[in-house]
Amino acid sequence: MTPSQPLVATCLDLPAGSPGGSVELFRDLYTGEHPLIPARAFMLQPAGRRPAVPVGLELLAVTGKTLEGPAFRRYVAALGQALAHALAPERIGVLHLQHLAFGATPALMRALPQHPRIALVHGTDLLFAEMHRDQLRVLRETARLADAIVAPTTAMADHLIRLAPQTDQRKIHHIPWGIPDHLLDRPPTPPRRTTASHLRLLYAGRLTAEKGGHTLIKALAAAKGIELSIAAPSAEFHALSPLMRRAGIHARYLGWLCRPQLWKAFAEHDALVMPSTTLEAMGLVALEAQACGLPVLYQPVPGLREALGGSALATAFTNTTGLARDLDRLRTSPSLLAALRNAGRANAARYPLSNTAAALTDLGKQLT
Fold it and tell me: What is the spatial distance between Cα 179 and Cα 155, in angstroms, rounded to a whole number?
């Protein structure tokens, strides 16, 4: 850390090891031997044995995470006390509030009430604020108290304003999320495709409702000439299994893959499917797939539409006829796959993680 680079305090109130793009981005930015953003970075200690964590990630033994009511307020108070105990205020330059909702944001502001605050919109904060009154209250309060708000896409900023219309829009900064620079510089080499008889589709990510797993299975039930692989948390995959059996779909389960394993899996498929039903902050897994030369087939929801645009193939996963037509085009048209590979690589190159880190650091310097 240089004297001009303020030390960040940040907390993601998820158990270490939780799946998801927000967790990967958090680790990419703030942890490791040489973090892109020097920080005191915290997550929650999961139940059971202490997991292996990257250098620079600290765990807080705070339990009782919840979303609403008196229990939520007690959880925020306990998390705030733990952060206040762990942090020396004089060493911290700026707060990075991960999500505008959930418990870590009000807890960190309570622990360090005098420090500049940058709030980062991730997407799930917006979704949960729509569903839970206390989360909407936290989101609106965070939007009011933050010195700056960072949204990775204009779609996320627009959605925030709909939820918190009193927000001072002059505080909102558009800083896209990014993917590791080394992936852009040295992507894995895909093996040569030997047959066009089947289209090898990959779904990678959580299988929660907003990610569209159920929509995907129903949509593929009538599709011909496809092979589906799923990389997802085990419990979520097995919860989806009854629907797959009823739909007559046999999916190859890859497990929940670490990033290098996922990048290798990209090279073994023909297209990534993203059937998200509501919104995506940016869709980092799609950008990583594009960097690896894997075409993307996606539902054009807010966030994804902006991040991917014409570099990927937009389709309606709820329209089985249209989806089947698009899948058949991909399966039978090597030139279309090649064009999408080239367009995807060019699009992914627009989003190096180093640019994200530099923009966040510059914003912090302006506030300190």
Answer: 19
Where b means 16+ CB within 10 Å and e means fewer, 250-266 reads ebeebebeeeeebbebb
Does residue 242 lie in a domain region? yes
Q: Which amino acid is at 81?
A: Q
d(CA 64, CA 338): 50
84 and 155 both lie in a single domain: yes
Same domain, 14 and 125: yes
Give the integer Cα–Cα distance in Å for 135 and 132: 5
Residues 125-150: tens digit of each pLDDT? 999 999 999 999 999 999 999 999 99
Q: Is the pLDDT of residue 191 over 80?
A: no
User: What does the alpha-carbon distance between residue 17 and residue 77 come to, in Å, rounded to a whole number?
Assistant: 24
**What was the pLDDT predicted at 133?**
97
Q: pLDDT tens digits for 13-67?
A: 999 989 889 999 999 999 999 999 999 999 999 988 888 899 999 999 999 999 9
- Given CA atoms 333, 334, 335, 336 in this order, what sign does their dihedral have? positive
Q: Classify residue 143: in a domain, yes or no.
A: yes
- 25, 50 contact by CB (below 8 A): no
Exposure string for 77-108, b = 16+ CB within 10 A, e = fewer: ebbbebbeeebeeeebbbbbbbbbbbbbbbbb
CA angle 200, 203, 208 (to 5 degrees): 160
Residues 321 and 251 in one domain: yes
Residue 300: domain span: 182-348
pTM for the model stands at 0.94
Query: Which contiguous run of DSSP H or E holds residue 204?
Result: strand 199-204
> In CATH, what number is assigned to the domain containing residue 212?
3.40.50.2000
Strand order in the sheet with 148-151: 57-60, 39-44, 8-15, 94-98, 117-120, 148-151, 172-174
Do 157 and 174 contact (CB within 8 A), yes or no? yes
User: Do 76 and 90 share a domain, yes or no?
Assistant: yes
Alpha-carbon distances, residue 22 vs 28, 206, 359 (angstroms): 10, 12, 18
* 103 neighbors 72 (Cβ within 8 angstroms): yes
Confidence (pLDDT) at 97: 98
